[in-house]
Write a structure and sequence with these properties.
7 helices; five-stranded mixed β-sheet; single chain
Length: about 220
């Protein structure tokens, strides 16, 4: 049985396989024009280059936070915990990417918003206007927080860590003049109640792809 070579196969198709001349599968440009296959190139439109800033100003996001806080007060709530990336971007203006690492924004009814985020995003968070925040080294996390040192050990419950931080944020707001409904004892008890309430109602909603939870 004769072996079919590549050259013989191409020759059977009527295609020149000569090494001395290029393959002309589709003919010349003149042939394409006469056959109606050649179209004139569309002119490239002149576009004016964009100039910064490329996102809304900080004042817009501050007003957005203020409007959100007013709605929280109207509903008698102490704050809201945002986990959905687009909700965080809309409220804070911090454009970031969602990964397996939990990222939260807590907006209290009184006081400044607080980020709870992975160390991977530390440089990004530090460039934006919200200065309150706490971070963990990586996910899953073990050891101390707000430091680059990693310590092997039991896996930390990041939800519990974040909820504890929201209570501390409320106490800081009280100390800076954003008083709650009562005195120091009332505020401290209320902050603890906020965390406990969020634990009861928020565990299901603070999982990926869930809606954000107000507490």
């Amino acid at each position: 049985m004769q072996r079919l070579t590549r050259r013989a196969f191409l020759a059977s198709l009527g295609v020149s396989a000569s090494l001395g001349s290029p393959m002309r599968l589709f003919g010349s440009r003149g042939d394409l024009v006469s056959a109606g296959w050649d179209h004139p190139r569309e002119p490239i439109p002149q576009v004016t280059p964009l100039s910064p800033p490329f996102r809304l100003p900080e004042s817009w996001y501050r007003q957005t936070v203020k409007r959100l806080q007013e709605r929280l007060a109207q509903r008698g709530l102490d704050g809201i915990i945002l986990k959905d990336r687009w909700n965080i971007i809309y409220v804070s203006g911090l454009f970031h990417t969602t990964t397996e690492r939990p990222f939260w924004l807590f907006v209290p009814t009184r006081g400044e918003p607080v980020f709870f985020y992975p160390g991977l995003d530390k440089d990004l968070v530090n460039t934006w206007w919200i200065k309150e925040g706490e971070w963990y080294f990586d996910y899953p996390h073990a050891g101390p927080f707000n430091t680059l040192a990693y310590k092997a050990g039991p896996r930390a419950d990041l939800l519990q860590w974040m909820l504890k931080g929201t209570g501390q944020a409320r106490l800081r707001a009280r100390a800076s003049g954003h008083r709650g409904r009562g005195g120091a004892d009332d505020d401290e008890a209320h902050a603890g109640g906020l965390a406990r309430s969020a634990i009861r109602s928020g565990r299901r909603s603070l999982t990926p792809h869930a809606d954000d939870q107000d507490a």
